[in-house]
Design goal:
Archaeosine Trna-guanine Transglycosylase, Chain: A, domain 4
Length: about 220
């Protein structure tokens, strides 16, 4: 199904189920957000791949180059300041793919199609391995810092789990965009690999007779 969605280009990747806090100060986006609040309608967040976030005072020729796949967001709280700016919290709901740009002024509006989540197949074992390596990661962080490990409770659903971890990991925006665009199996495999690589850099991960390395390699 094709629908129209106002777009908010950012140097950020939003995942379904993840919250984002935004400060809306440009006139064009004040209009957009005000309309979304009044209509209780979503807007789309898309990654800026080239160009600037702030377009106030610039020509339409300066529009940024944006990624073709983004995430729709619903506003769940907002404050309007005296000067018209907004402070909002929104949550990602679903992925979409841009088909055509229908409007460029005062803000982008696109015809988009929702991207359904592909069937995950058999992910019980790899998702269990991801949970294990994530727990080991925080145990290693705690051992290295002397702090009590604070492992957050992860969602049961593999889609929500991988989106949550994809949001939290400190990786490039290009990699986050790849995780947004690809299937859950790809996210499980690559997030597990990234955590395993971080673990091997921890000072407390010892190679005692190869036991620890052997345990880590079993997550491949």
């Amino acid at each position: 199904m094709i629908s129209q969605l106002p777009l908010f280009p950012l140097r950020s990747v939003l995942f379904p189920g993840v919250k984002i806090n935004l400060h809306i100060f440009e006139d064009r986006y004040r209009q957009m957000i005000g309309r979304c609040i009044n209509d209780r309608s979503p807007f789309g967040i898309v990654l800026i791949q080239q160009g600037d976030e702030v377009l106030e005072g610039r020509s339409q020729a300066d529009l940024p180059q944006i990624a073709p796949i983004g995430t729709a967001a619903m506003i769940n709280s907002h404050v309007r300041l005296d000067d018209g700016r907004f402070l909002i919290t929104a949550i990602g709901t679903r992925r979409f793919q841009i088909q055509t740009l229908e409007q460029q002024s005062p803000y982008l509006i696109a015809s988009v199609t929702e991207l359904p989540e592909a069937q995950a197949g058999e992910v019980a074992r790899p998702i269990s391995e991801l949970r294990t390596v994530y727990q080991r990661y925080w145990q290693a962080v705690a051992a290295a810092t002397g702090a009590t490990p604070q492992v957050e409770e992860l969602p049961d659903d593999p889609y929500h789990l991988t989106y949550q971890l994809a949001d939290r990991l400190q990786v490039s925006l290009e990699r986050k965009q790849r995780w947004l665009e690809h299937d859950v199996s790809t996210r499980i495999r690559e997030i597990t690999g990234d955590l395993r690589a971080e673990l091997l850099l921890m000072p407390n991960v010892k190679r005692r007779g190869g036991d620890e390395l052997s345990g880590m390699n079993s997550l491949n």
